[in-house]
Amino acid sequence: MAILALKSRPTEISPDADKSGPIELVRYVCAIGAMQSAAAIPRVVPITHCGPGCADKQYMNLAFYNGFQGSGYGGGPVVPSTNASQREVIFGGADRLRELIESTQLVLDADLFVVLTGCIPDLVGDDVGSVVRDFQKKGVPIVYAETGGFRGNNFTGHEAVTRAIIEQYVGPWDGVREQGLVNVWSLLPYQNTFWRGDLEEIKRLLEGIGLKVNVLFGPDSAGLSEWRDIPHAQFNLVLSPWLGLSTATLLEERVHQPFLHIPVVPIGARQSSEFLRQVAEFAGLPSERVEAFIKSEETRYYNYIDGFTDFYSEYWWGLPAKFAVVGDSAYNLALTKFLVTQLGLIPAKQIVTEDPPVEHRDAIRAEFRNIDHDVSVEIDFIEDSYQIHQSIRNADFGHKPPIIFGTTWERDLVKEMKGSLVEVGFPASYEVVLSRSYVGYRGALSLLERIYSTVVSHSA
Amino acid sequence: MTLNLKTSSVETREQRLGTIIGWDGTATQLADESAFSRGDCGGCGGKARRICELEGPFTQGSVCSEQMVECQAGNIRDAVLIQHSPIGCGAGQVIYNSIYRNGLAMRGLPVQNIRFISTNLRERDMVYGGADKLAFAIKAAVERHAPKAVFIATSCASGIIGDDVESVARAAEAEFGIPIIPLHCEGFKSKHWSTGFDATQHGILRQIVRKNPEKRQDDLINVINLWGTDVFTPMLGELGLRVNYVVDMATVEQLAQMSEARATVSFCYTLGTYLATALEQEFGVQQIKAPQPYAFAGTDAWLRELARVTGREQQAEDYIAREHARVKPLIAELRPKLKGLKGYVATGSAYSHGLIGVLREIGVEVDGSLVFHHDPVYDSEDPRQDSLGHLVETYGDVKHFTVGNRQQYQFYNLLQRVKPDFIIIRHNGLAPLAARLGIPAIPLGDEHHALGYQGMVNLGESILAALQHRKFHQDIAKRVSLPYKQSWLAEPDPFALSRGATA
């Protein structure tokens, strides 16, 4: 394992020009929420250096009352934690952290430990890097990321954890490249309620056209062997509007790896086929296999769509025409694209809620302006649910009841508006999600089932 | 000891009650060492009721005081809770919204979202302070919701940077003319989350409860509870008494009238000790000092004391007789079905004392329990409230009685020691481990489920249902691996690391 000079602070977590106001009913958590990103890698255990409630809060809200996803092997409310007390605030917590890391070796069986800090050590100035480096020197597989809650949200925390593993664990590149191997950087684990099923489908699609995939997170990842293999990949695929771009840039600098950025996570046949052709072209894959795979997927997909057509064309009791999406840019963009281009629905309001870094916002706006040849959408970036709900109330949904793609926070609003709600993001407390996916060819069919089961249930 | 309501911060549990979070022995030993029976280990320091505590190097995530503020102050129907913190503390909005909505539905109240606002402190605020953001959030709360009160939960971050929450709150109170109540609940300040209950109740006592009640409501009983189904209204109705449920899902007015009530009761002394004691101290509202209302012995004694205090002895005796006659045959039916079963209780402290009594009463064997902390004494310092003493005197000892703040790594060894057929839990994080060992759990989200006479029947039925669940758990047990090392799983002593550290 490599021991590398550590940056004192990941560049992603920087104080922005602070226009942040109060947030009612949260749509993301803080940087230490990325403990669940660490836990999303098979056999990786987070060690949290923070107050006694931080781990419980992040897990219970991101992973339990959000689709009831579960803790995974190493996550949960009971990850190792210093449960920092008055003593650590006054005298510093470095010794306590050292004691915890040492004793963790006696109790827990993991391939890698990821130390994450909370507000307390980041405020009192514990030298966590120095504590962790001592263990690294002894050969303990361990890295650390500074994820104090005031520094950023779980998106930037995720990038800090990813960077920490790449810089402190993955090691230098031996110069070997494997053609056809791709690293996938896409949806944020646990924050995105459907990430497990979605990553499985994305992996299936990429393998379908002949690629070998390091999916890195979730049950379909082989775990740390994939992470060690990162530098060998032919390229990085960033499949999201912005999350993962800094990781791809980091790898471009460190191991001279090219990356392909596709902002739209594909839902449905049109988008999935276009996605696969784009990837295939970038990877230089032979088109016969790619086209054969696309053809077989489309045949299956349109068989089901054909059946759905009867319902969609002559259901007597009205189907929604206008929709709104409230959610993270990744799913918001993906859903809007699918609903507009596949179903011909009319976007009434799209609100992006994860506070994307300022430098990526214009690119996100541009993607929404280019939804279809005849549809352009102006989005809002809002994080405070009170303002979000006011904005949706003021949107023009015409005379039909609207359908809202949002979260549990929209339950009361949708009742008030007599519309339908599909919970597609954090927090989704009225969804139980195992392997369900809403992306790719197969996920799109599940999504249609969910949308229209909700709609027809109005009279149930 | 007099509770000090003059200062804005509540004294922590460990300061007031000598609360511990690590201990292992028999229930009788713990009861003896606790203040109710004048125990003193001698070597542990100044306070007479201090019990020797096990402290180890390895700890897993616990729960903080601020979360308990969320689950109480955040669930008042016409108030707003402001979390003066970075956004991460606001994560709790999700769980407490789900719990609140389920609680409202159980009580037949209109289901609605919670009203929590995070001040969203960022890096810049750590340097320049977050007072302006707090003032802005209070203004937003008032404009958006026209609340009857605004609570402010502090955080580790706001505490460390030293934001003057008091001044901001006072200024806002003058401006808006409603109580603006700072609740000091920094997670690092207390080793046990139950201090958060006290912090909420302290703030309510200081700024909401009517100081000079003009009238007395002689038939009104404050019932300190959480979200449980309404079992108290029919029960107290038998005595001609009305229920004032506090704190969760109450209105600000219902909180304000607590000082007018005749008496205060609760389902759990861990939750209710501070508020009930302070109401008696400040306003003469009597706290019912009796065993908690669980199983026959506890419920009988509790009802008789309530009847004595409110002058309703005859109604109580009639009710007790009728309930005995109604419930005893039901329990006689349950007992053979439950015979030979072994249960394990892993819940909050005083609550566990009640539940073990219920299990023993319906014929379930209990030789192990994990409580998340232990208060050697409650705020009343009255031996009639010695819930653990009542348990061992009425139902006998519990061989493996453990105190631990939800340390899952110890829970494995604890279960191996006892090998129960099922566990009863509140709080998350333990049942998932038991499940993977093939042991089903009964999660008591409805804290009133096992209360009173009917509670014995309810719990018996839940146990029978949970036993069928074993099919699921035994299947998954064969399929999953735990993150713990074999060497740790083989360790017979759950506190081996602590004893090593102490030695």
Could you give a short description of this structure?
The complex is a heterodimer of chains A (460) and B (503). With 460 residues, chain A is α/β, with parallel strands linked by helices.
List the helices and strands and how they pair.
The complex is a heterodimer of chains A (460) and B (503).
Chain A: E1 23-24, H1 35-39, E2 44-49, H2 54-64, H3 86-91, H4 94-107, E3 112-117, H5 119-124, H6 128-137, E4 142-145, H7 154-170, E5 178-185, H8 195-208, E6 212-214, H9 224-228, E7 233-239, H10 245-255, E8 259-262, H11 268-283, H12 287-314, E9 322-327, H13 329-341, E10 346-352, H14 358-369, E11 380-381, H15 385-393, E12 403-406, H16 411-417, E13 420-423, H17 440-456
Parallel strand pairs in A: 2-3, 3-4, 5-6, 5-7, 7-8, 9-10, 9-12, 10-11, 12-13
Chain B: H1 13-17, E1 22-25, H2 27-33, H3 65-73, E2 79-83, H4 92-107, E3 116-118, H5 123-128, H6 131-145, E4 149-153, H7 156-161, H8 165-176, E5 180-183, H9 195-207, E6 217-225, H10 232-237, E7 242-247, H11 252-256, E8 261-266, H12 269-283, E9 286-287, H13 295-310, H14 313-338, E10 342-347, H15 349-361, E11 365-371, H16 387-395, E12 400-404, H17 408-418, E13 422-425, H18 431-436, E14 441-443, H19 452-477, H20 486-489, H21 496-502
Parallel strand pairs in B: 2-3, 2-4, 4-5, 6-7, 6-8, 8-9, 10-11, 10-13, 11-12, 13-14
Antiparallel strand pairs in B: 1-12
Helix pairs in contact in B: 3-9, 6-8, 9-12, 13-14, 13-19, 14-19, 15-16
Count of extended strands of chain B: 14
Helix count of chain B, per DSSP? 21
Radius of gyration of chain A: 22 Å
Structure class of chain A: alpha/beta
Distance between the termini of chain A: 59 Å
Strand count, sense and barrel status of the largest sheet of chain A are: 5 strands, parallel
Enzyme class (chain A): oxidoreductase
Organism (chain A): Rhodopseudomonas rhenobacensis
Protein name (chain A): Nitrogenase molybdenum-iron protein beta chain
GO molecular function (chain A): nitrogenase activity
